[in-house]
Design a protein that fits this description.
Number of strands: 0
Distance between the termini: 45 Å
Strand content: under 5%
Oligomer: single chain
Largest sheet: none
Radius of gyration: 23 Å
Helix content: over 70%
């Protein structure tokens, strides 16, 4: 086996010494955010929104992978299904961390909220059924209720399956996934329209929900690759993780690299081709100053770098390449979220200020620290992978003889 394979024989990692890291991130982030709240209020709000949308990507990406597993009965997702369930289960935590800030300071974050007569603005007038304070509050809360309910129902049956192995739990999860994928698509689109796209309410794009979805799953897959390798080394996932596991995660990561590029290019091309001012202004603004360079970074860093790196099939099983690439994916997705959000407060693209950097780091540390803390709590409370999934034997490379085959052999022996 290659010395660079994720399953290489290496000493188990000791995670105990990192147990206090989430608390350190929370405290450090809270101090930075407290300073920003009083000294740089605008930077605080938009940096916090950027971090919120970044981590929402991981939560919804985890939920999507759980739904994907149950919809297609895919054996290769079994080793990481429990991790994805824990990611999806972070929805209420993220809601508590993010929604109060977004809802309380909505008028300071979203310019359309501050318009005294919404019907005097044509773009807001025609969208008023959706873009009004009451709908914003109700829908924002309802979205997290739906995600929390769906994630909890799936995990409840998953844990019950560990205990009994009953087929009823498998069937229930498949039924929830069948309806849940429709709910997922609808609610994700509403969420990204309300919390990110409505920053510039005049803008039109029918592809924005898919665009955010593609980037979310892309980043989640990169995260899952590293977590799987880490937990395989600690022994938690050692029984079920094989070389093919990393190849399969890497293959889907590669696929979403192309899918994201296709969606982003299609959105840009359609808007450029139509040349309607209500659509083009969004991209025109992002050609100013620093935003032009971030746009170029997204084109080359979000697509060409991972695409060219993962073209060879053997690369997808080399942790020495894939781990840095996963870190790069986090950076690119954060740049993508910044590219969508920050031009609202700096349309000329004057540059990234010191206050903006401090608030960005503090927001990521604060929200990320809380989510990491609750993720670890959930992970150590339950079995690290599904114990009685129907495909668990196949996942471990063990062939289980069918009853019909056993009966045929018995008849053959008697004959």
């Amino acid at each position: 086996m290659s010395s660079e394979s994720p399953q290489s024989s290496k000493p188990s990692l000791d995670l105990a010494k990192y147990a206090n890291l989430p608390n350190q991130l929370i405290v450090g982030g809270a101090i930075g955010l407290l300073i920003g709240f009083f000294a740089w209020r605008e930077q605080f709000l938009y940096s916090y929104l950027t971090a919120f949308m970044f981590f929402l990507s991981l939560v919804l990406g985890g939920l999507f992978l759980v739904l994907l597993h149950h919809l297609f009965d895919s054996q290769w997702l079994v080793p990481i299904r429990r991790i994805c369930e824990h990611f999806a289960g972070l929805a209420p935590i993220l809601g508590v961390l993010g929604l109060p800030v977004i809802l309380i300071f909505a008028k300071s974050i979203y310019p359309w909220m501050a318009i005294e007569d919404p019907h005097s603005d044509h773009a807001l007038h025609v969208k008023y059924a959706l873009f009004n304070p009451t709908a914003f509050w109700v829908v924002s809360i309802a979205l997290f209720v739906v995600w929390t309910w769906l994630a909890n129902r799936l995990r409840k049956h998953s844990l019950a399956q560990d205990e009994t192995g009953a087929a009823t739990h498998t069937q229930a999860m498949r039924k929830y996934a069948a309806g849940g994928i429709v709910l997922f698509a609808f609610t994700l689109t509403l969420g990204v329209i309300y919390w990110m796209k409505s920053l510039e309410h005049q803008w039109f794009s029918t592809m924005y929900g898919v665009y955010y979805f593609a980037g979310s799953v892309w980043t989640t897959l990169a995260t899952m690759y590293v977590l799987t390798a880490l937990l395989q080394r600690t022994g938690h996932l050692a029984p079920v993780v094989r070389d093919s596991t990393f190849k399969d995660i890497g293959t889907l990561f590669f696929a979403f690299t192309v899918f994201y590029a296709y969606i982003h290019f299609s959105q840009y091309f359609l808007i450029w081709n139509a040349a309607i001012p209500e659509e083009t202004f969004w991209y025109v603004k992002r050609e100013n100053g620093i935003w032009w360079y971030l746009g170029m970074l997204i084109i080359f860093g979000h697509f060409f770098v991972p695409f060219l790196t993962m073209l060879r099939i053997d690369v997808k099983k080399k942790l020495t390449i894939m781990a840095p690439l996963a870190g790069w994916a986090w950076l690119m997705h954060y740049v993508d979220m910044t590219f969508n959000i920050k031009p609202v407060i700096d349309p000329e693209g004057h540059g990234i200020s010191l206050s903006g950097m401090i608030q960005s780091i503090a927001s990521m540390a604060f929200i990320g620290g809380f989510l990491a803390k609750f993720f670890l709590k959930s992970f150590i409370t339950h079995a690290p992978f599904p114990q009685r999934d129907p495909r668990i034997a196949e996942t471990m490379g063990v062939y289980v003889e069918l009853e019909s085959e056993a009966q045929a052999q018995t008849k053959s022996a008697k004959a």
